[in-house]
Amino acid sequence: MINAVGRDIPQNIIEATKKEVFKGAYAFDNYEYTKAAPKVRAVCDPKRSKLVENIHEALVKCGVKDNMTISFHHHFREGDYIVNMVMEEIHKMGIKGLTICASSLGKAHDPIVPMIEDGTIVGIQSSGVRGKIGEAISTGKLRDLAIMRSHGGRVRAVESGEVHIDIAFIGAPTCDEYGNMKANGGKSDCGVLSYAMVDAEYADKVVAITDCLVPFPNAPASISMVHVDYVCVVDEIGNPAKIATGAAKPTTDVRKIMMADYCTQFVINTPYFKEGFSYQTGVGGASIASTISLGKIMEERGIHMGLGLGGITTPMCNLLEKGLIRTIVDTQDFDMGAIESIKKNPNHIEISASEYANPFNKGAYVNKLDFVILASLEVDVNFNCNVVVGSDGMITGAQGGHPDTAAGAKCTIVIAPLLQGRIPAICSNVTTVTTPGETVDVVITDYGIAINPRRQDLIDCMKDVKLPFCTIEELRDRAYAMVGEPDPVQFGDRIVGVIEGRDGTIMDVVREIKAYEFQD
Amino acid sequence: MINAVGRDIPQNIIEATKKEVFKGAYAFDNYEYTKAAPKVRAVCDPKRSKLVENIHEALVKCGVKDNMTISFHHHFREGDYIVNMVMEEIHKMGIKGLTICASSLGKAHDPIVPMIEDGTIVGIQSSGVRGKIGEAISTGKLRDLAIMRSHGGRVRAVESGEVHIDIAFIGAPTCDEYGNMKANGGKSDCGVLSYAMVDAEYADKVVAITDCLVPFPNAPASISMVHVDYVCVVDEIGNPAKIATGAAKPTTDVRKIMMADYCTQFVINTPYFKEGFSYQTGVGGASIASTISLGKIMEERGIHMGLGLGGITTPMCNLLEKGLIRTIVDTQDFDMGAIESIKKNPNHIEISASEYANPFNKGAYVNKLDFVILASLEVDVNFNCNVVVGSDGMITGAQGGHPDTAAGAKCTIVIAPLLQGRIPAICSNVTTVTTPGETVDVVITDYGIAINPRRQDLIDCMKDVKLPFCTIEELRDRAYAMVGEPDPVQFGDRIVGVIEGRDGTIMDVVREIKAYEFQD
Questions:
Q1: From CA A429, how far away is CA A495, in angstroms rounded?
Q2: Which of A215, A503, B310, B453 is 20 to 30 A from residue A57's alpha carbon, by CA?
């Protein structure tokens, strides 16, 4: 069945997943459903302790068994030790058939690939995967379909009952004996625990894992004891050096700086750039450069941001410190500057991933965005974006908040260099659709800027603005003129993954990669 | 059927309520159940507004209809305008058969009594009732059984699905257009919104009512927009002068001061009085005097409270300011000093009523109490307490956190003058059991102190302590010797209310009051 972004979703996948195909970014507005709910065991005897000796005891007490779904968060990013630590113990216990529902997985988790191969892990649901896990999925080693969800889509999937988490393992930089967790104050601070909040609320069993046990109460808690069954103290939950890889350095790439300047010029010429505007950027060099250049103009004109959202990096925190932002609300910290900021600045506030981006709650922060500045591996002439599958067909990225913020923001700007190496970033058809073009308003490249024809209002705004505007087709043609139109990636028949729309529909499928065969 | 506190619960009440009878304070420890869940309508179209013109429009949009259950919180206490404002509009619309599930109701709500009489309101579930609502229930005017729950019991009832709230009306001192609510920063500050948090999470429809609309985002929010359907701005949500009736004044009643001194002497001679201890008091004069006298000893001995819980008054906040308390966690503010404290002191922290006292979550704060100092209308020789029904049989009080804290604390101390006027506070049988004697460790009166024989450990601790210890029977006998044993209250046959144990069992029933008849 052809969905609303023109992708043909095979009937057997629709049947196997019991999902509908994507019908448009706002098709589920006002959709009514009954929320999911966990099984809970009451702790009303004050004499009971939640402390367990080790991960093994936690697993035994949680009743871990074959075919369960277990969950993890990715606030420790490439410094995470929790996934491997828990999976190693599960593997030793001989448990099989597990599905991992993680907010994201990265190269730090390469060690679990043998557990995919031996059937310990048969399902992966994640914002995305990188490294060897991506290769394992793309080469057909995972038994079940991998499901790639946006950050908002993951919360929706859990809260709507599409996925039920049996046991959630939550790494906590600090925790008390009763399970009150905080993201800071320990030896492996991660700034916020936003992605893990839904796991705590909806998993049947919740295990807090910490390397810094603090006196009761660890309050105010990011995640409350009322959701926590067991508390396990380990030596190290992460490698602080890799959790946040230092302050984001301003880019020196002139191409990125040029695109950032285009972006800033575009932003300030829209009607949304006014006192109290709201704004989010990704962590790409050009996005960060845009924040810096926008900050200068805000300062010159005395315009303040009312709300900075995200995925937070140091340049946003610098604007907060300067008084140019009223409030930052934060679901993820990408560098040490952001982590330090949330520790000390009361206007830098932790929120849940549901508050951030869940399309099925009663209104998320993304709905209130004026601007979001995003990157993309590929953008096609329908403004569809691909942020998960490389142009070589290998799964190597993550949806993150891309489709969520694009759907929410009044002005969604995607910055992409026209060529990524020898690969055109602007193309006729993206390898895989992750963010529907109907939610992408502007594409900024180093060779020109295309406004989505759906946004005649923005086209009108820009009619006297001196920026290199052109059509998206012109950008594609220019790219193809330079490096040629690439042959389509050759996939096998087997479908290995589903790109889920934030509303739970099928946006696209990912096929098994196959070795390139020369055409006759 | 006779329950664990010796009350005979009629079979027809067991059947009508589908409840079990009380089996002991910890009978439901480790009880497993699936949480309830609300119906939710997704707001993913960023163009939709949540603002409504008035209460009437909110009611229409929420689809109010006969026989619904609606809810309110009582943080505005005797200054609350919300209940009457909403009920007046509902009454105008001709809706009938409503059940009100409130965290508590007071004299401020006397105006709803005619709506009980005309069938607009047929059910009341509350921590307690005072004034004319209590009289209306006690004289048989309410169609359904009134259900009296502790603060923890109410959260349990909602989270377990025993009561399902169709529409929650939440008065918010400040709110933004998307429903982020805070307890402070407006013209009717109430300190915390703890009791309303479960309503926001579990009601199908949630209406935020504010008299101070603030710019988005009102963050960090006490109650998040993700739970809120509509936002309604009204002129006044409460009368600030009655929300908090000024700083609690230290009592000058020598009898209360003496009991407070007994209490402090008792506390400091237990093994629990040590660095980092946890503590809660009620708001009675003797309880507050105990806090003050205990504070002096803490200061002399250099002992710090790790956790102050409650129901907060100025004397607790003063100890926090002096550095004698590490953290106060707060579910209700009883005076202006407490409200000012939570605004300015980062170690004074708002928690949910579930975190405070819910016996069916994975561990509440009450479980971590070393001491709780409580008052009681009556205590009987089995240490059972009555805090809801007056000795004249009229409903006139509230469970509050009484049974919750008593069950949680290592040392539960009840302070009661031996005589309340001409009525013995220590008696053979309380009029109605609200808190089971198995959870009450010590009763302090102006004529002597009785330790529950179950607590041989505390009796041993006190063997060299110079306090007027005696048995509870001796206290009862002394009271009866002074004023005579009162005739039992004469009730009618009809049962008008149920005192629910915090675990949802039937602790006791309340019968219709009848005019006193002289015996032959």
A1: 19
A2: A215
